[in-house]
Design goal:
Length: 520
Amino acid sequence: MKQPSILWADDEIDLLRPYIIFLQEKGYNIITANNGSDAVDLCRNQRFDIVFLDENMPGMSGLECLTEIKNIQPALPVVMITKSEEENIMNQAIGEKIADYLIKPVNPNQILLTLKKHIHQREIVQEHTDTSYRQEFSDISYMIDTASTFDEWSAIQRTLVRWDIELQSADSSMREMLKMQQQQADREFAKYIIRHYAEWFTATSENLPNRPLLSPDIFKKKVFPLIDNGEKLFFVVIDNFRYDQWKTIQPLLSEFFTVQKEQIYCSILPTATQYARNAIFSGLMPMQIQEMFPEYWVEEDEEEGKNLHEKELIQTQLDRYRKHYNYTYYKINESDYCEKVIQKLKGIQSPLNIIVINFIDMLSHSRTESKMMRELAHDEAAYRSLTLSWFRHSPTLQLFRTIADLGYKLILTTDHGTIHVDNPVLIIGDKNTNTNLRYKVGKSLSCKSKDVFVMDNPKQFKLPTPNVSSSYVYCTGSDFFGYPNNFNYYAQYYRDTFQHGGISMEEMLIPLISLSPKNQ
C-alpha cells in the first residue's frame, strides 16, 4: 500500500521534528517547507494526500498560501494550524474551504486523528460497516426465515435498504452477500403474499389484526383525519418511488421538513399505475371502480390512457365520505409545468392539495429504451444516484420548499415501486394478453415456472375480469415474462431493466411519509 504523503509548511518546522518522527513511525511520508512560497511550489510539482499549513508565516501568509494551493489542487485537503483564535481568520480559512482548523499547541494524537478523518475516513468507515454487516448477517437471515406479519416484513425492508445504501461502496464480496439476502427475502416475501393476500379482501378483512394498510385505505385513514382536524395538507404521489429512493432524498427534505412518521404500506396487485394509483384516489379496489364508475375505468386492451380520470376518482371518494373540501389537483410530467405549479401554489387557500409527479416512472421507462440511460443507472445504487440528482437539480426541490414555506403539512408517498429484473420466464397466452412484463391478465395463460402467483378467480381479489375465463399471473423475485415468439431477443432486451407489476418487496413495500414544515 502506498505511503500517505503529507506536506507540512511552518516557519518553525525544526521545532516540529518530534511530530514528524511520530508520524513517520506511523507510516506517513512527510515533506516539509518553512515558508508559503516553497509549499506552493511543492504542490505544483508533487501530489500530496493532505497539507498542514501554519497560518502565521513571514512573507506569504498561510491564508495566501491556502488560496494558491487550492488553485493548483482544488480537492487537496488543507488543515490550518494557528496560534490565533480570532474569528475573522477562522471565517476566512473556512471560506477558502479548509478541511480542518487546529489551534496551537497541538498534540500528536490530534494530528493523527485529523489524518484518520481526512485521509483514512472512507476505509475506516467501510471496514466498520463491513464488520457490522457480517455480524448482523445471521440476525437478518433469521428475521427473513421467521417473518409472519406485515410489520415484520416492513422491518426487514428497512434493514435491507439501510445496508444496501451503506454497502453501496463496499467490495464485491459484501455486495454479493447482501444481494443473496435480498433475493432470499424476496422469495420468502412472495410466499407470504401468496399465503395471505386473498384474506385481506374478505368481508371481515378490516378487522384482521395483521392486515396491512393498502392502497385504497390511504385517503380514509391518513388524509381525511388530518383535514377533519383542521390541518392544511399537500398529498404528493411520486410514481414508481421505492423506499430506498425515499431514504436517498430524505436529507434534502430535512432542510425544511421534519419527519413526523415514516411508514411502509402495501401496494395492491398488480403493482401498476392503472390499478394501484386509481385505488388510492378512488378509495376502491379496481373491480369496484369498474362496477361503480365504468366511465372512469379503462380496460387493459384499450388504447386510452389508464390514468386520465384521477381527479374525477378523487371527487367520487370525497362524495362517498361526504367530505366537502375544496382541493386542487396537479399532475407534473415536465419541469416547465412544475415551475408553473410552484407559482400557482403561492396564493393557495385549499386545505387539500394533491400533486402527482411522474419523473421516476419516466426514468424507469427511458432506462429500458435507452442504452445511455442503462449505463447511467446500471444498478440500484446508480438508480438512486440519478433520482437524487433529479431531485436536487430539478424544480421539484423548490416545489417542496414552497410547500414548507406555505406552512402546509405533507404526506409523501407513491403508488408502487419497481424491481431490477434479470431472469426471463416463458408464458403463453392469447393475442389479447396485456404487455406488462411482471404480470399478465388474459385467457388460457400457461407458465411452467413454479415461482408465479396465479389468480384464477380475480373477483376474489377485487380485480376486474375482462372475460369470464380471465386470470392474472404474477412474476415474483427478479423474473419477467417473455413470449415464445422472439423469446431470446426480448429476454436480452429487457434483462437488467427496472420493471413493476409483480410481487416483490421493492414493488409492494413502499413509503408513506408524514412531514411537517420546520417554519411552523
